[in-house]
Amino acid sequence: MTRRNTPRIAFIGFGEAGQAIASGLRDEGVTDIAAWDILFLKPEGDKLKAAGTKAGIRLATSAADAVADSDVIIATVTAASSLEAAQSIVPHLSGNPYYLDINSVSPGRKIATAELLVGKARYVDVAVIAPIHPKRHRTPLLIAGPHAEAIAPLLSELTMQLKIVSDVTGKAAAIKMIRSVMIKGIEALTYECFLAAERADLLEEVTVSLKNNYPGIDWQETATYNLERMASHGERRAAEMEESAATLRELGLEPLMAEGTVAHQRAMGRLGKTDAVRATLDKDRAAILAAISRAQG
């Protein structure tokens, strides 16, 4: 790269996370940013391209075009596509760029991706540990791997908020995947508990009972937030929880709770696409729960 604070950056995958980070870096003054997403070739990719154009991102014509002469590649694809995304660019890499794998996948998948890129790119295991909005590129990150320490100054210079957790690839992913058992599991429990309460016509009574045990939690606000997150992002979160389940298996644990969370997240993600449920997502938990019950019949 010509100067440490002016890297040439390529995004592989340009969904919510890619758009948020790219637009934040653009506002930070990084001018040479390209993006590629396989959806660019389909009608459903029009919104992605429009977001890129609005942010001043160069829309690449292919993965090869995106990564050409790049200093840093940031992979933000779906969990199921993380290894395939890396495979798609291997023949086109030059100059030994950094490869920031932000995808929410198991440590085993991150290790496999790192091995694929040996001699082609400097792999960095990255975990996003908070919602990508509103902080965008400043959302807290954990990074790990043998190249984490080398890239940390550049990322910090770009005002990215990060913590090096290990020089071993997979450790950042492990933290995220294990904590997701709790974070996304609580969302799923919220859905199951409060939907049952709504159907029993005991929503307020159950809420008061929970407050007795957990006085520090605002259950009305928590339930509304968790239900909205699941309805808006449930299918993606289900895929991420499948990676959490894979992580637990890698550790010799049976992912019973994680698999239940997968089912609830996926179900809510599908319900969230219905007009009836989507219309309530800016309302409170009672309205969302009532819409869910009606949608489920």
UniProtKB/TrEMBL annotation:
Q: Which SUPFAM superfamilies match?
A: 6-phosphogluconate dehydrogenase C-terminal domain-like, NAD(P)-binding Rossmann-fold domains
Segments traversing the membrane: none
Q: What is this protein called?
A: NAD(P)-dependent oxidoreductase
Q: Which domain of life is it from?
A: Bacteria
Residue ranges of the Phosphogluconate dehydrogenase NAD-binding putative C-terminal domain?
197-267
What taxonomic classification does the UniProt entry list for its organism?
Answer: Bacteria, Pseudomonadati, Pseudomonadota, Alphaproteobacteria, Hyphomicrobiales
Domain Pyrroline-5-carboxylate reductase catalytic N-terminal: from-to ranges: 8-94
